[in-house]
């Protein structure tokens, strides 16, 4: 009984904090909104708090949740139908480059700056500028993010790093790798570390854009390579540069030496699950992957996992990491935009995001005040190496790709080329990347930049 009372008091405190002040959270009472969510702990946190949102606003929420491998196909189909369903949807920064130009997204600036629609304590300036700025773009291919309309709001972000089983590495006398040479050596030594079915390093490998953006793109950037450049008013691919070829060759060696035998079928789900199941000793992926597996009770290896910054190529000292921002956006064809905005505002508010990273299991918080909150600092400090990794990695975390409308087509072709290299279908890495550049340039040739 006492636990029930405490839980109810905590629930009421959260709800009161989220709706505090003179702002009318009931202004859209009686409306119904449809929300499309990707299967993710961020989405699960939202679902957990939906009853409180509905009680505070009088808005009914219908939601669908879809695994990531099918999520964006479903979302693209829904948006292109112009039906207005879903009203709110989860998205990332790269999707802005596809969805904003045809008018599938609402510029949220008009809502953020309207005191009748946004609570006075929302405090938009509390977001890390580099994180919320990743969702701001001027719609010009080749122009970097950070300028232009605000197309979405962040739920949480991911930098990319090493997560590893400290118990396994310690047993083999291996320190957390600082360089790519050390990572290759560790992954090689740890292949089959406990017999068949165990291996050195978990990496994504499907023929999908998501294979390129975490560990691969982080390492690609640290090698000094870039994906695209503007030359004579045209976007051109740079994936066959000496830096790009050298990095890709090293990545293929890493996969062959210590990757999963079924690497080519690996999404983020399989890669993270293998670390948590003691099948993989190391994971090079989003920092939240290791954290999710390390939460008490989340996996058989929780409490044994640790974090480290992404390893660097020889001679490099500056740590860069590619950024992913799980966000929510509003459908430009929604018929209930004001109700949709209340949903977006509530689930990106400080009270909700503080709850999500302390009482729930979400990281990394996109609000400065949440990250600096003593409760979060104490919570995340329990996980070996996480704060040190975060402090060393986040300053160099940014969108490493060049915005363009063919991002998914190009990166999917990139992932296919990587699969073919691992399978031995090219005579050399240079030949593979030359072929990839030619394909990319053909796709980009209709883009002219003034």
Describe this structure in words.
With 450 residues, the protein is α/β, with parallel strands linked by helices. It has two domains: 21-157 and 324-391, D-Maltodextrin-Binding Protein, domain 2, CATH 3.40.190; 160-321 and 398-444, Periplasmic binding protein-like II (D-Maltodextrin-Binding Protein, domain 2, 3-Layer(aba) Sandwich). Helix content is 43%, strand content 14%. It is built from 20 helices and 13 strands. Strands 2-1-3-12-4 form a five-stranded mixed β-sheet. Strand 7 (228-231) and strand 8 (234-237) form a beta hairpin. The longest helix has 17 residues, at 2-18. The termini are far apart.
Features:
D-Maltodextrin-Binding Protein, domain 2, 43% helix, alpha/beta, globular, 20 helices, four-stranded mixed β-sheet
Short description:
The protein is α/β, with parallel strands linked by helices.
Radius of gyration: 22 Å
What is the total tally of β strands?
Answer: 13
Unreliably modeled segments: 1-14
How many domains, in number, for the residues? 2
CATH fold label of the largest domain = D-Maltodextrin-Binding Protein, domain 2
Number of helices: 20
The CATH architecture term of the largest domain is 3-Layer(aba) Sandwich
| Strand residue content | 5-15%
- How do the strands of the widest beta sheet line up side by side? 2-1-3-12-4
Average per-residue pLDDT, rounded, comes to 94
**Major beta-sheet overview:** 5 strands, mixed
Helical content, roughly? Answer: 40-55%
Spell out the CATH superfamily of the largest domain: Periplasmic binding protein-like II
Distance between the termini: 68 Å
Q: What is the CATH C level class of the largest domain, in words?
A: Alpha Beta
Structural class: alpha/beta
Shape, principal axes of CA atoms: globular
